[in-house]
Amino acid sequence: MLSLTRYPAAQQTGQPVLVIVHGLFGSGRNWGVIARHLADTRDTVTVDQRNHGASPRAISQSYADMADDLAEVIATLPGTVDVLGHSMGGKAAMMLALTHPAMIRRLVVADIAPVAYSHDQTRHIDAMRGLDLTNLTLRSEADRRLSSTIPDAALRAFFLQSLDLQASPPRWRLNLDVLKAEMPNIVGWPDVTGTFPGAVLFLSGANSPYVQPDHREGIRVLFPESRFSSIAGAGHWLHAEKPREFEQAVRAFLTAPD
After folding, report:
1. Is 97 helix (H, G, I), strand (E, B) or coil?
2. By residue range, what is the domain housing residue 145?
3. What pLDDT shows up at residue 119?
4. Which one is catalytic: 40, 152, 164, 177?
5. N or C: which end of the chain has fewer CB within 10 A?
6. Is 236 one of the annotated active-site residues of the chain?
7. Catalytic residue among 87, 204, 208, 226
8. Which of 22, 86, 236, 239 is catalytic?
9. pLDDT tens-digit profile of 90-117?
């Protein structure tokens, strides 16, 4: 089963458990602060997806498999749950909703659509695989070495959260070989049928190109009770760029009357 972290509610209010699903190259720990904030009134769980963090390694990164992983976790939780997924995690959450709809009450999809994208993240995998880990003990030195291939400081900081410097020798908490081989599946979207009858919020960064107006017709075929909102001044990493606004939008949707 996937590795998970539980955040017990500070005050129980009868709301469903919230399951948070991270995106590509991430882990549940990236969502720790937001999870703690949202756990003020409900139990909250973050997961490490397969081939990420402390979860098992596998030869596939298909959305069908990722959805089944999430279903296995949710089966251990009480009742139906609410699910929040970002980017790759949003696609996994959508596949879960379409294939196991009875498990989910409400769904938040953060800055992704159920479509195939043309971008490719293998250059970042090549940069991480190419990082010289020899005698590496400091994150600042890892950042300096990685800067030669990844000039964006924010991206480096994000990737380096998955570098385990306590291991001997240091290692990535990512199955980079499988993620590279499975990249067409990760940026793609499978030919899936069915619908999810529950309420879905597609929450996007206003500056992000990932969810376009012409995606909405196809989204509503799969998710007829979908609604759309955006966060001003945020891009694809909306939860990191505007965390309090992100939390407010998620909370308002999940607690709104039926």
Report:
1. helix
2. 122-173
3. 87
4. 177
5. C
6. yes
7. 87
8. 236
9. 999 999 999 999 999 999 999 999 999 9
